[in-house]
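Exercise 7. Given the components listed, write out the predicted structure of the assembled complex. Treat all entries as one system.
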Amino acid sequence: MALEGPAQTFNYMLLGYGVILGCIAVLVISMLTRYRALHRDQRMLDELETQAKR
Amino acid sequence: MTSGGVLPLTTGERARGYLRAVGAVVWKDLAAELRSRELLSAMLVFALLVILIFNFALELDLATRQTVTSGVLWVTFAFAGTLGLNRSMAVERDRGCLDGLLLAPVDRSALYFGKSIGNLAFMLIVEAIVLPAYSILYNVNLFRPGLVVVVMLGSIGYAAVGTLLASMAVQARTRDVLLPILLFPVVLPVLISAVKATNAVLLGLEAAELWPWLNLLIAYDVIFTAVAFMLFDFVVEE
Amino acid sequence: MQPIPRALKVLTWVSAGLFAAALLMTLFYAPREAVMGDVQRVFYFHVASGWVGGLAFLVAAGAGVIYLLRGSRRWDAVGLASVEIGLAFTLANLISGSVWARPIWNTWWTWDPRLVTASVMELVYIAYLLLRQGLEDPDRRARFGAVYAIVGFLSVPLTFLSIRIFRTIHPVVVGNNDPTAQGAFDMTPPMLQTFLFSLFVFTVVYIALLWHRVRMQALAEAVEQRKMKLLSA
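Answer.
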């Protein structure tokens, strides 16, 4: 067994890293997307409020 | 209560008042149920149907039956229990009883104990009927004294946490589906321990196999009754 | 909307940098494990993700307690933010654990206590979000969320315990190797350094994400209020 060397698991390593980075990426992207939507809403509300005042 | 609204109540009077409030809530549920019997019949029919489905879902030959009985029983109790909890709390909400009860000059926790004892009672009644039914249908001897203890401990834990969570679920839009989603992940330790303990009792295993599970059940019951009782206030305030 | 505080800007850059450093460290500094090969490298981020999942759960429960005692909406935001972040990291933990198990134990899933407990934790997280979603009143949402976070958090150790006892009494062999071995390997000093550094980095990343998410919640509530005012005007 010692002569065989470590198992060939490179692909699994890539998959594992991909999964972890993917989950974190999805979280970050979802936060960024929601942030943008909220900023858009804010700008729209600013416009509506200035319109209402006139 | 003996003293009027002017003099403060003694500890003894408060305790008696508290117990009376708990008793009143339990009696209200039981009496209503005795008259209509809709909750119990629903739970019972459901439980028996589940047992029936298991007969076809699992090939219960004699050998398998021995090992699988405790699991089948507790899955049945868990599902029927959900039904009971949902109905029990929904009834309060729908009939507006909750508001009336909340106005009463008694500690909110009395309401919690009243409801959970009522829910426990319904579960125990259903279990008391399902166990002999299962025994007859599957020709499995369920008459072990230890079984009563295990079923009791498991049901207490289930009802303690279930009453709290059902109070929340029933106030949501998604009330019917929400209770199982909230309850099952949290009540898992009870189900695991109850199944293993029941298994130990039914197969007549030695005490070392049974005690860890009983201890877990007791620990769970104590912890969650205490926690639910403390948190219940936050769940019913309007 | 207030501009991002300087401290948060710094923290964000620092966590990104630390994360990159940790990534490089796990890939190049840590040695390749003798038996398992490259897939063992996943272990560092796998455990760190699990750690963040547990930490997030603890923070959510704590925030729940404080919210119930104080009533400040800020703590509800902390709870919600922590649950969302914990959800993502626990998912990362679960799937990466599965990926690691496959070449090592020749099975995609083992019913060992830690994996099952992580799954149950994930389910509680999801249930928390579904509970909030089903409620209209924001005050009730916050209160019930707090209650459920507390109840959920208390149940998870008991779940772990019950499965642990289950395993001790009935060790079931799943897959080819003994799952209780936990893919055990000896950690050489560089591995230990990488491991601890990963834990540290993930904690920093968690704090940064939490802060951002809590700010976003404040913004969301402000926007919601303005919408209500405009609609009722």
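Discussion: Helices of chain A lie at 10-53. The mean pLDDT of chain A is 87.
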